[in-house]
Amino acid sequence: MTFEDLLAALGVIVNGLPQGLLALTFGFASVPTAADFIVGAIGCGCWELSPLFPFRPKL
Q: For the residues 27-53, what does the mean pLDDT come to?
């Protein structure tokens, strides 16, 4: 993992914060969804796979 990868991951997190806050105002269940995405990310990392699903939920 390079420094550019870490910057890209940080950019994704910063970009997703406003969308997540907006989703919370509409009653989106963020904790179960976040747990599922974390499990998926760990699984993809263990098998060195690219994710087969987008990490960006559609609202």
A: 79
